[in-house]
């Protein structure tokens, strides 16, 4: 790990300002992903701005019946919150499907949205990786790609977004609130928050360098049955090969999002309308532009079978 300096910010504006005035500075909260990347020298910040004292750790009801979740709310606290368990069950299910209890106690809502890919070539500094070192190439495309993306990828990168929580938030149409060093605030629909890789896979979100996530807002509840199925290589503490988040209504309509398959939580609204026709119709539409490798083509039929299980559970 390389040497760095450190400070604890006293307000969101101070934190954003500290980042704006120090080249190579980064925010840190729970640090569950960033510290690992620093130990491997994949991330090499020169200065860390700790945001843990900002008081952004409340969950509040919004005027329209939704929830506003502070960026520092831990994954454990969010999954266990009574309103989340009652009205946004898919979010609780997704969170507890990820990581370990110890990590969920430290990981924060904002940090979870920003966790980086688990592509093995990204984590190996001896291999070319356009995400880690732009312009160096992508070893994954001709390498071992079983875990990697099948849709939304590019000729520069086939990594996936690794998280579970964000898949449920994408299903629920969450909105990410931010503040910049000049005080400007933004409300970013989560559908627009994570970028597709294109020619610049090292740029993973639409956040600007001095932009701090302050909260995530959930719209009013959808009702229906909330389900999250995650398929992985071992029963716990592993990232998804494929995950399915769904809210299904009694008449068979609903919405679906997929994880483990793309650079961002993958949802195609046009596919939602096909839910009454069954899993194959939804997956055929959602993955119509898929470009799988020989190693990971199994993910598409796996997504269909996983969704079929979700639909069957909703009917039972």
Automatic annotation (TrEMBL):
Span of domain FAD-binding PCMH-type: 1-223
One Gene Ontology molecular-function label: oxidoreductase activity
Gene3D superfamilies: 3.30.465.10, CO dehydrogenase flavoprotein, C-terminal domain, Uridine Diphospho-n-acetylenolpyruvylglucosamine Reductase, domain 2
Keywords for the protein's UniProt record, in alphabetical order: FAD, Flavoprotein
Domain of life: Bacteria
Residues that span the membrane, as ranges: none
Pfam families referenced in this protein's UniProt entry, alphabetically: FAD_binding_5
Protein name: Xanthine dehydrogenase family protein subunit M
């Amino acid at each position: 790990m390389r040497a760095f300096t450190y400070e604890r910010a006293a307000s969101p504006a101070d934190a954003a300002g500290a980042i704006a005035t120090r080249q190579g500075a980064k925010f840190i909260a729970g640090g569950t992903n960033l510290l690992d990347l620093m130990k491997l020298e994949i991330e090499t910040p020169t200065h860390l701005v700790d945001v843990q004292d900002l008081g952004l750790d409340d969950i509040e009801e919004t005027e329209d019946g939704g929830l506003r979740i502070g960026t520092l709310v831990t994954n454990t606290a969010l999954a266990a919150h009574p309103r989340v368990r009652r009205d946004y069950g898919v979010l609780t299910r997704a969170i507890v499907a990820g990581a370990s209890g110890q990590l969920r106690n430290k990981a924060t809502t904002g940090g979870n949205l920003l966790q980086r890919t688990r592509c093995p070539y990204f984590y190996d500094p001896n291999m070319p990786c356009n995400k880690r070192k732009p312009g160096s190439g992508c070893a994954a495309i001709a390498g071992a790609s079983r875990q990697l993306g099948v849709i939304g990828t590019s000729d520069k990168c086939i990594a996936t977004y690794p998280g579970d929580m964000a898949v449920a938030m994408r299903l629920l149409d969450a909105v990410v609130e931010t503040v910049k060093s000049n005080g400007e605030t933004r409300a970013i629909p989560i559908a627009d928050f994570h970028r597709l890789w294109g020619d610049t896979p090292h740029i993973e979100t639409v956040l600007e360098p001095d932009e701090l996530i302050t909260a995530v807002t959930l719209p009013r509840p959808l009702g229906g049955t909330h389900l999250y199925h995650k398929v992985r290589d071992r029963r716990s503490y592993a990232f998804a090969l494929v995950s399915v988040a769904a809210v299904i209504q009694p008449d068979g309509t609903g919405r679906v999002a997929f994880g483990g398959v793309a650079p961002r939580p993958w949802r195609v609204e046009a596919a939602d309308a096909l839910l009454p026709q069954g899993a194959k119709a939804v997956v055929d539409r959602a993955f119509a532009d898929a470009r799988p490798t020989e190693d990971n083509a199994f993910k598409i039929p796996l997504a269909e079978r996983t969704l079929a299980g979700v639909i069957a559970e909703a009917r039972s």
